[in-house]
Structure to design on (430 residues):
């Protein structure tokens, strides 16, 4: 297994090297390809509404054509992932588009997609909602508003918007798949199965079968889930298989008490396909908890942090980078379990970064307090424990640690870090 792991890391390095490689993580791809695959060129998104004139006086027609060309140019910039350039062009359009409803809504939606790609959620929300006000019938707008809600953790709101995109029993592939994923995250597996049936009628693909397997897994119907996965991965066509399909079968194997089979599925998914976030999370947890090897766990958490390079423009500020917070927390815990004294500063940096990414989770403050105690920084430790208790009022463990610290019991750090998991979201589902 150790030799195979060395091979996996070599494969990962080969993926990291070329800058042109794009992430195949399904969740990340869906999010970043809204602009490329859902809307297409903004100028072609929707036909003119009945209230829009089909012909206009010369000057207005010329203005429409000129602004529409700028929208098309922005779409090309967006497709090349030059999001800031696209935003600048669309700013120009919107500064001149008063009285031109179609151009305005196209430009607003296109700018919303560009904002979404660089994690500027408030601006993306404002633009897509203005587009919806102009044209509430365009389902892509509702779908994209749902994506924003989902990405910002507002799952109930996301379901509402995906439902609007699917209103009137109208099929919208992206919205239906997105709703299936939210149902999975919410643990609503019966609703997930219903949507899988709807998806199968319109798109009977390997992806639908794996979604169904995930729902069956959630319902505890493990043999049926394994049968679905195997049908895709063994009997299905090579071109239909994706890395996250193997990750799903790995989940089924773990539920069946077969960790070795789960490891091989995860390892194959990482070596054969792009190392997705979910696969890396599960491999790291495998070496944290199932077959403990903290060096390998740290390697996978580090790889997980590095994956962000493939889908995130360099222009995104450091404090807004969309990296999985759980990787920072768990790598810090692995450092502390491996060698507290040697890796205390590494753990401190990871817990500090986790707090930046998840400021509302008490776990980060509590873990950082333990490092401060180890380093005999009692004032910093006390401040972090006080903050942890503000966020998780009444937590007996944090209360006890704070009392010990105030009695002057600083000197012995907790026996082990790593038993604490974040109260917020961890890895990303597919």
């Amino acid at each position: 297994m150790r030799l195979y792991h060395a091979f996996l890391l070599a494969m990962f390095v080969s993926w990291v090297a070329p800058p042109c490689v794009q992430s195949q993580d399904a969740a990340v791809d869906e999010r970043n390809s809204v602009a490329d695959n859902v809307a297409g060129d903004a100028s072609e998104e929707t036909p003119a509404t009945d209230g829009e004139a089909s012909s206009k006086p010369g000057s207005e027609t010329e203005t429409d054509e000129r602004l529409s060309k700028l929208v098309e140019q922005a779409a090309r910039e967006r497709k090349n992932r030059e999001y800031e350039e696209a935003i600048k062009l669309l700013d120009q359009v919107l500064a001149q588009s008063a009285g031109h409803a179609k151009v305005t809504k196209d430009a607003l939606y296109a700018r919303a997609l560009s904002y979404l790609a660089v994690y500027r959620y408030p601006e993306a929300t404002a633009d897509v909602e203005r587009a919806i006000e102009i044209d509430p019938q365009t389902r892509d707008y509702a779908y994209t508003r749902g994506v924003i809600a989902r990405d910002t953790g507002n799952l109930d709101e996301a379901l509402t918007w995906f439902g609007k995109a699917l209103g009137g029993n109208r099929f919208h592939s992206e919205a239906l798949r997105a709703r299936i994923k939210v149902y999975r995250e919410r643990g609503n597996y019966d609703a997930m199965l219903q949507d899988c049936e709807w998806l199968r009628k319109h798109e009977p693909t390997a992806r639908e079968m794996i979604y169904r397997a995930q729902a069956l897994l959630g319902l505890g119907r493990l043999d049926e889930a394994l049968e679905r996965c195997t049908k895709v991965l063994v009997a299905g066509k090579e071109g239909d298989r994706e890395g996250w399909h193997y990750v799903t079968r790995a989940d089924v194997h773990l539920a069946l008490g077969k960790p070795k089979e789960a490891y091989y599925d995860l390892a194959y998914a990482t070596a054969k396909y792009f190392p997705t976030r979910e696969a890396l999370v599960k491999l790291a947890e495998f070496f944290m908890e199932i077959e403990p090897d903290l060096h390998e766990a740290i390697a996978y958490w580090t790889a997980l942090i590095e994956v962000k390079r493939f889908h995130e423009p360099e222009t995104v500020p450091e404090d807004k980078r969309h990296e999985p917070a759980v990787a920072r927390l768990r790598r810090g815990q692995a450092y502390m379990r491996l060698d507290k004294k040697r890796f205390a500063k590494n753990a401190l940096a990871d817990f500090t970064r986790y707090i930046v990414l998840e400021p509302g989770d008490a776990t980060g403050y509590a873990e950082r307090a333990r490092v401060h105690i180890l380093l005999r920084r009692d004032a910093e430790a006390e401040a972090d424990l006080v903050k942890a208790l503000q966020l998780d009022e009444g937590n007996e463990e944090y209360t006890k640690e704070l009392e010990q610290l105030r009695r002057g019991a600083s000197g012995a750090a907790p026996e082990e870090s790593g038993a604490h998991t974040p109260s917020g979201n961890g890895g990303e589902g597919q």
User: Anything to note?
Assistant: Residues 362 and 391 are 5 Å apart (CA to CA). The radius of gyration is 24 Å. Confidence is low (pLDDT under 50) at residues 6-29, 35-58, 423-430. The longest helix spans residues 58-79.
